[in-house]
Amino acid sequence: xxxxxxxxxxxxxxxxxxxxxxxxxxxxxxxxxxxxxxxxxxxxxxxxxxxxxxxxxxxxxxxxxxxxxxxxxxxxxxxxxxxxxxxxxxxxxxxxxxxxxxxxxxxxxxxxxxxxxxxxxxxxxxxxxxxxxxxxxxxxxxxxxxxxxxxxxxxxxxxxxxxxxxxxxxxxxxxxxxxxxxxxxxxxxxxxxxxxxxxxxxxxxxxxxxxxxxxxxxxxxxxxxxxxxxxxxxxxxxxxxxxxxxxxxxxxxxxxxxxxxxxxxxxxxxxxxxxxxxxxxxxxxxxxxxxxxxxxxxxxxxxx
Amino acid sequence: xxxxxxxxxxxxxxxxxxxxxxxxxxxxxxxxxxxxxxxxxxxxxxxxxxxxxxxxxxxxxxxxxxxxxxxxxxxxxxxxxxxxxxxxxxxxxxxxxxxxxxxxxxxxxxxxxxxxxxxxxxxxxxxxxxxxxxxxxxxxxxxxxxxxxxxxxxxxxxxxxxxxxxxxxxxxxxxxxxxxxxxxxxxxxxxxxxxxxxxxxxxxxxxxxxxxxxxxxxxxxxxxxxxxxxxxxxxxxxxxxxxxxxxxxxxxxxxxxxxxxxxxxxxxxxxxxxxxxxxxxxxxxxxxxxxxxxxxxxxxxxxxxxxxxxxxxxxx
Lengths: 304, 316
Hints:
heterodimer; A: alpha/beta; elongated; B: globular
């Protein structure tokens, strides 16, 4: 587990930002999902040691919060939501400086600065002042400064904030590359479901300061009862009757697409559909387990 | 982008890392690089040396006149009246305006610019504590100030040491060198802490600099007012009070530095080269008052900076 929290609560006076959050975040690329003001950034800041929890405990990469924030931050990389840079520095100087802050010897920091900037697609612009960068470039340099010291865990707070469609695609590609090809665990905080779906395997859903759901995206999208979606080449009279006679219950229909409630086992359901199609002379184009969209899953989790 | 070529360029870092204790030095070094690169810093430091340059030129001509006057009486009389530490005090006092310029150049943006660009998130998300950051920033201002303020003094001290040892330069006050170092260190430490406190309150170096300059000028105006009151009062007042003692003259940002210099050097500067001997001077202030006020200002500024430095985002 990269992060473990137990009954974690954060209060700002009378306002409760996080309440009794208990979760275990495994290695890989994890999405921290929730609407604006859900408590995502607060959770990240607690993990970084910026905010002391009012109650509860948390451990990052095996180190308990309160016993070694420096050690935790040595193993973490943080990409904040807002623009941030050191004024007056070029990109290569800025990222090298970030490396030195993380304890890298200056020579190593400079070498890695060049490498990371190349990796983040800023190789051509590395000698330009960061102030002169476009929004997309500023997002990338935030990622570069978070990566320079080779962290084991990256915390990305709204990484696609303010990006145009192309820049967003490129940033998501980078995030996926870091997590799936470079072996760095990543926690992506975002309220944009497509971004999370594109990059993450698992999500933690937070809303109103509480944890609402956690699990693999594929599991969250599953519908209770294991229904199946069937698509025929064209509607055939008698197909529905054949299905009904085999115990399949129709849940919905749209032209030649049908959703049936599953039987006791998925393979039994599939066999019943195919037998019904053969009996009624229908051509099956698609037969897949039915699933809902991530949005539906999250809305259900958030609204209870 | 993370294409096939770019992919080869990134890998984890498994090399050695430097001790956590030295992280403040990384912060300080960055500030030093920025400060020493500024042309204005060197110009202000040079302007701060004007009194010493003029004095060195005069001393040079006096020395030359010895060769033209076979008796040498004029030069002897001149040197017998010379109080060396007073020259340093007066030169240092005249340099206070340039000291303000140096402080603004080096320190005004030190935290304010970081506030503006959310740089604190970069610093504090790394294994750098708030104390590392503040101490690094403080050293980042202190060292350039020591250099900027100390260079003119070092120049004149070296000049005198090389040319006027036989004229009683060392004999008059053998501890003058260490005293000058102490003066520069105290002044630099005081200004560095004050400017850090002010800088932390703003999101723009220029605004922070303006605020610091405003406080300096307003308190300086008060100081000059108190100076006028002091000179208006009879020299030996029958009712000596805080106003007629001249102590209020030191109640300004640079007044405290001047007072501290007088205490450390042990002179009121009454034997100035340019001032007739025996002219009335503001007496040396009580040490407890000057050092107490300086300590209070430093503690307050440090507390403000410490309170303001947080890893929070400035949402624009």
